[in-house]
Design goal:
Layout: H1 2-17, E1 24-30, E2 34-41, E3 44-52, E4 59-67, E5 70-71, E6 81-89, E7 92-103, E8 107-115, H2 119-140
Antiparallel strand pairs: 1-8, 2-7, 3-6, 3-8, 4-5, 4-7
Helix pairs in contact: 1-2
Length: 141
C-alpha cells in the first residue's frame, strides 16, 4: 500500500513537471507595403516589437502595426518608428501585421511567448509532493 501511494505521488509530480508549455520566439524583416507573419503558441505572455528608422532619405515608414488585429501605438512618432507590445495571450494562432511604405529601407521585428504553466500542473505537483512527504513523515514517526 505504501509503495503504491509513493509511486502515485511521484507519478503526479513527474506528470505535472511535464505539463509545462514551450516558449516560442522568432524574428522577421520586411519592406513590402503590407506584411503579415503568424505563429502558434501555448498560453503565455507575448512580447513583440517592430522597429524602422531612416538614414538620410532612405528607410521604411510604418503606418500601423497590429497584433491579432489590435492596433499598437507608435512609441517614437516621426521618421523613426518603434512599436512594442507585452500582454498575456491564449493558446492558439497569433498574427503580427505591419503596414507602411518603403523608401529604400526595411523594418525589423521580433516576438516571444513566454509560456505559463497550467494551474492544474502546479496542483498535481503539490499533491504529489504532499503525498510523498506525508508517507515519509509516517514512516519516520
Amino acid at each position: 500500500m505504501k509503495r503504491t501511494a509513493i509511486s502515485l505521488g511521484l507519478a503526479l509530480a513527474v506528470t505535472a513537471t511535464g505539463a509545462l508549455a514551450d516558449d516560442v520566439s522568432g524574428s522577421f524583416v520586411g519592406s513590402s507595403p503590407a506584411y503579415m507573419t503568424g505563429f502558434a503558441s501555448d498560453a503565455g505572455v507575448l512580447t513583440a516589437s517592430v522597429l524602422s528608422s531612416f538614414t538620410g532619405k532612405a528607410g521604411y515608414d510604418i503606418f500601423a502595426v497590429q497584433i491579432d488585429g489590435n492596433a499598437l501605438a507608435d512609441l517614437l512618432p516621426g521618421l523613426d518608428d518603434y512599436y512594442y507590445f507585452s500582454a498575456p495571450v491564449l493558446s492558439g494562432f497569433h498574427t503580427i501585421a505591419v503596414f507602411g511604405k518603403s523608401y529604400g529601407g526595411s523594418f525589423v521585428g521580433s516576438y516571444e511567448v513566454s509560456a505559463v504553466p497550467e494551474p492544474s500542473a502546479e496542483w498535481l505537483a503539490l499533491v504529489g509532493i504532499l503525498l510523498v512527504g506525508n508517507l515519509a513523515r509516517r514512516r519516520l514517526g
